[in-house]
C-alpha cells in the first residue's frame, strides 16, 4: 500500500507530479486559453464583486493560503487577507456581505476552520472551500468549492495536499484575472502554458532526492535550523520549517529573508544551518546579500537555486537545483527539496515519519 516506498510520506511526495495534473485536468485548457472550475463559474459574480478575499486555514493549508495571497493579488488585483482560522473565529473579525471567504483544508474536518466558516456564513459572506476529502464536513458546510485531487493523504505531515491546494488557488487567480482583464493576454497565456508544464518540472525537482539525503546526513544532529525566503517563497520557508519540526523534532523557524537583520541574525553561528530559497526570480540580488550576511557570521548555507545558478553557488555550502519557472509558480518546485530534506533528516534520526509524536491527521478539537 506504500507503493514500494518505506513510508507514506515518501510515496505522497513522489505522487505530486501526477496529483497536480489530476487537480488541473479538465480545468486548465491551456491551448485554448481557458481555465474553468464549476464552483467558480457558478459563482463568478460573487468573486468579481468581492471587495476582498479572506482566507482561513490552519497549518500547512494556511501556508498555501499565503502563497495564494501573493498570486491572487498579483494576477487578479483583489485584496487578500490570510488568517489562522483559530484567530479569526475568536477575535470578532470584520466580515462583510461582499467578502468572499476561502477555507482551505486537506481533511475538511479541522474544527477551527469549520468554526471560522460558520462565523463567516452567519455574517453573510460567500464561503468557498478548497478541500481534499470528498464529502468532508467543510466541503458540506461551504457554499461552493473546488476539490484538490491529491488522493488520500496518509502521512501526518502534509505534502501533496499543499502543492495541489496551490494549484487550485492558482487556477482561481488565473480565472479571475481573465474575467477582470488584470493580466495581459500574452501573460495570461504564458502562465497557462507554464502551469501545464509544472508536473514535469516537479518530476525533475524530485531528482534532488540524492543531494537532499546527503545534506540530511551532514545536518541530522542540528538542534536548530532557519529557513529564509522572500516574496512567493516566504511561505515556502514557513512550510519548510514546519515540515522539519513536525517529523524530525528539530527546532526550526521560517522567516522572510529581509527580516533577518531585525533580530534572527543574532542566532547565526557556525552551528546554525540556514536553508535559503533563492530562485533566480524575485529580488535575487537581495537574497544574495542576505546570504553574504549569514556567511560572514559563519552560518552554514543550504541554498535552493535555479538550475545554472552561479552567484549563490559561489557562496553556499550546499546547493540544490530546481528547474526554471515563472516566479509565481516557484513555490510548487522549491517546496519539493524541502520536503525531501525533512524526510531524510527524520528517517536518519529514527523518527516515526508517518505518525510523528503528539500529532493527529485531522485536528477536530478546538
Ligand atoms: C502539517 C499539517 C497540519 C495541517 C493542519 C490543517 O503538515 O499536517 O499543520 O496542515 O492541521 O489541516 P487541514 O488542512 O486538514 O485543515
TrEMBL record:
Domain SIS: 43-182, 215-356
Keywords associated with the record: Aminotransferase, Cytoplasm, Glutamine amidotransferase, Repeat, Transferase
GO cellular component: cytosol
Main location: cytoplasm
Catalytic activity entry: D-fructose 6-phosphate + L-glutamine = D-glucosamine 6-phosphate + L-glutamate
Signal peptide: none
Gene Ontology biological process terms from the UniProt entry: carbohydrate metabolic process; fructose 6-phosphate metabolic process; protein N-linked glycosylation; UDP-N-acetylglucosamine metabolic process
Listed GO MF terms: carbohydrate derivative binding; glutamine-fructose-6-phosphate transaminase (isomerizing) activity
Subcellular location(s) per record: Cytoplasm
UniProt EC number: 2.6.1.16
Catalytic residues in the record: 361
Assembly behavior: Homodimer.
Record's function text: Catalyzes the first step in hexosamine metabolism, converting fructose-6P into glucosamine-6P using glutamine as a nitrogen source.
Protein name (Swiss-Prot/TrEMBL): Glutamine--fructose-6-phosphate aminotransferase [isomerizing]
Organismal lineage: Bacteria, Pseudomonadati, Bacteroidota, Flavobacteriia, Flavobacteriales
Amino acid at each position: 500500500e506504500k507503493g514500494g516506498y518505506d513510508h507514506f510520506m515518501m510515496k505522497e511526495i513522489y505522487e505530486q507530479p501526477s496529483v497536480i495534473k489530476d487537480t488541473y485536468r479538465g480545468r486548465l485548457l491551456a491551448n485554448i486559453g481557458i481555465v474553468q472550475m464549476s464552483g467558480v463559474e457558478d459563482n463568478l459574480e460573487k468573486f468579481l464583486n468581492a471587495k476582498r478575499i479572506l482566507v482561513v486555514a490552519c497549518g500547512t493549508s494556511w501556508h498555501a493560503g499565503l502563497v495564494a495571497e501573493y498570486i491572487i493579488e498579483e494576477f487578479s488585483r483583489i485584496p487578500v487577507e490570510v488568517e489562522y482560522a483559530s484567530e479569526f473565529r475568536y477575535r470578532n473579525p470584520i466580515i462583510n456581505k461582499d467578502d468572499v471567504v476561502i477555507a482551505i483544508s486537506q481533511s475538511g474536518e479541522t474544527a477551527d476552520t469549520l468554526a471560522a466558516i460558520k462565523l463567516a456564513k452567519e455574517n453573510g459572506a460567500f464561503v468557498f472551500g478548497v478541500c481534499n476529502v470528498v464529502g468532508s464536513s467543510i466541503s458540506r458546510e461551504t457554499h461552493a468549492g473546488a476539490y484538490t485531487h491529491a488522493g488520500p493523504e496518509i502521512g501526518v505531515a502534509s505534502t501533496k495536499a499543499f502543492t495541489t491546494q496551490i494549484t487550485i488557488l492558482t487556477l482561481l487567480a488565473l480565472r479571475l484575472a481573465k474575467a477582470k482583464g488584470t493580466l495581459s493576454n500574452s501573460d495570461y497565456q504564458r502562465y497557462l502554458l507554464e502551469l501545464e508544464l509544472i508536473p514535469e518540472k516537479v518530476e525533475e525537482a524530485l531528482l534532488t532526492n540524492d543531494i537532499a539525503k546527503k545534506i540530511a546526513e551532514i545536518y541530522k544532529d542540528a538542534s536548530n535550523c532557519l529557513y529564509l525566503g522572500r516574496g512567493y517563497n516566504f511561505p515556502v520557508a514557513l512550510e519548510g520549517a514546519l515540515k522539519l519540526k513536525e517529523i524530525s523534532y528539530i527546532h526550526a523557524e521560517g522567516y522572510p529573508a529581509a527580516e533577518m537583520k531585525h533580530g534572527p541574525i543574532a542566532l547565526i553561528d557556525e552551528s546554525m544551518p540556514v536553508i535559503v530559497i533563492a530562485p533566480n526570480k524575485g529580488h535575487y540580488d537581495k537574497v544574495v546579500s542576505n546570504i553574504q550576511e549569514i556567511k560572514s557570521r559563519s552560518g552554514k548555507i543550504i541554498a535552493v537555486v535555479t538550475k545554472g545558478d552561479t552567484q549563490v553557488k559561489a557562496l553556499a555550502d550546499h546547493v540544490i537545483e530546481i528547474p526554471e519557472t515563472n516566479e509565481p509558480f516557484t513555490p510548487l518546485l522549491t517546496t519539493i527539496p524541502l520536503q525531501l530534506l525533512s524526510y531524510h533528516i527524520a528517517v536518519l534520526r529514527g523518527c516515526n515519519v508517518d505518525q510523528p509524536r503528539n500529532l493527529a491527521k485531522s485536528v477536530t478539537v478546538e
